[in-house]
Amino acid sequence: MVNSYESSRAGKIGMEVGSLRERIIVALLIYKFGEANVETEIPITEPEVDVRLSGQPVSIKTITGRGFSGVKLIWTVDTQKAREFCDGYSPHCDILLVQIDWNNIGGFYYIPLDVQKRLFREMGRKDYIKLPKPGTNPRGVEITKEALSTLIKDKDSKVIEIHWQRTEIDYSPYKRWVDYWREED
């Protein structure tokens, strides 16, 4: 999906990989629906909404691996902000979720807002949202594994299964910038 080397250090992928993956998904939406139908100028401070598709807000989420845990609803390390977010949260936009499972089957999921609202009502806030454990640095408020698994299996959610093939490449995340600095000399 994305050159994870670009967002890794010492062989470990950093959280900025999500921003790179998001751009790739937004580019796919522009390609499929046209630039006029994809609004990308969304303030980074707006919770959840990453893009507007035909005027409708959409949240883009990506995960790596087979499980459906660790998907953030909001990124924050502040315990008070996490609590405030949780207390005021209700789903308010469709979700595009891309599950990358290298050399296996993952998927591109569309989870409509109506499905999220229905499950949120049925499960309740406590079972739908996972707050960070106090004293840890989890980086955000998550949707629970149970809630996400239920959402993707809902009859009104859609999935395109993808067999992810990993290709090893020789890549230096610094090369293009070193080349740029050379041009400036």
How would you characterize this protein structure?
The structure is a single chain. The chain has a single domain (4-184), classed as ECO RV Endonuclease, Chain A (3-Layer(aba) Sandwich). A hairpin with a 4-residue loop joins strand 7 and strand 8 (105-111). 20% of the residues are buried. It is built from 6 helices and 11 strands. The protein is of the alpha+beta class. It has helices spanning 17-33, 79-88, 113-123, 125-128, 145-153, 175-184, and strands at 8-9, 12-13, 38-39, 51-53, 56-64, 72-75, 94-100, 105-111, 129-130, 140-143, 158-163. The protein is globular, with a radius of gyration of 18 Å. The protein has a 6-stranded mixed beta sheet with strand order 3-4-5-7-8-11. It has a 3-stranded antiparallel beta sheet with strand order 6-10-9. The chain has a two-stranded antiparallel sheet with strand order 1-2. 33% of the residues lie in helices and 26% in strands.
Key terms for this structure?
185 residues; 3-stranded antiparallel beta sheet; 6 helices; 33% helix; globular
The radius of gyration over CA amounts to 18 Å
Shape designation:
globular
CATH class: Alpha Beta
Distance between the termini: 34 Å
- Placed side by side, the strands forming the largest sheet appear as 3-4-5-7-8-11
CATH topology-level name: ECO RV Endonuclease, Chain A
- Mean pLDDT, to the nearest integer, reads 88
The helix count comes to 6
Largest sheet: 6 strands, mixed
Number of domains: 1
